[in-house]
Structures are given as structure tokens and as C-alpha cells.
Design goal:
By secondary structure, this protein is mainly alpha-helical. The protein contains four helices and two strands. Helix 1 crosses helix 2 and helix 1 packs across helix 4.
């Protein structure tokens, strides 16, 4: 899949939700709800570290960006965060993609 044209919050959230649905489609976990902004990756979707890596790689591919500072999202005070919500991932992407729209990427 190619680069995401719209960089507004709704477009970003749609991409993240689609990636998460694709990643978790064949998982056997107890989460039966709809994935949304408040869904936690580790607590509800049972993400493990390799799943976070797959999520990051998928996001980079969809936005065609290998320079996003995911350490800002995944680490606090030198330690990995214990959990993230979908909304936090979307907030991070919205902020970081906006920073680079002003002539910094083609």
C-alpha cells in the first residue's frame, strides 16, 4: 500500500486502526470489542514487543517515513512505557507528520 495522502487526524487514525485490525485479525485473544482510540495495545490487545515492532514498521511503510522518532512515543525517562492507547499513537503521528509537512518532505 502506498503513502497516505491525507495527514489529518481522521486519516491518520483510519490508517492506524486498519493496521491494528490487520495485525490482530488472526490472534486468539480475549479482546472482543471494537478497536478505537481508547483501546490499549498491551492491556487489551495483548501486544508483545515484537508486535510493537511490527506496528512501527507498518506505520513507517504506510506513511513512507523512516525518520519518525518513535522513541518519543515508546520511552519515558529512559524506560519503555508500560502501555499505549491507539489515541496516543495517533496523537504522536499527527504531531510528527505535521512537523515535517512544511517543505521537509517531498
Amino acid at each position: 500500500m502506498g503513502v497516505v495522502e491525507g495527514k489529518d487526524r481522521a486519516a491518520i487514525q483510519g490508517v492506524v486502526l486498519q493496521i491494528l485490525k490487520n495485525l490482530t485479525a488472526d490472534w486468539d485473544n480475549d479482546y472482543g470489542g471494537e478497536i478505537g482510540p481508547e483501546t490499549s495495545l498491551i492491556g487489551e490487545l495483548a501486544f508483545e514487543s515484537i508486535d510493537v515492532v511490527e506496528l512501527v514498521v507498518s506505520i513507517e511503510g504506510r506513511f513512507q517515513r523512516r525518520d519518525l522518532p518513535f522513541e518519543k512515543l515508546l520511552m519515558r525517562d529512559g524506560l519503555y512505557v508500560e502501555d499505549l492507547t491507539v489515541g496516543q499513537v495517533v496523537d504522536f503521528l499527527e504531531t510528527e507528520l505535521a512537523k515535517r509537512q512544511d517543505g521537509q518532505n517531498a
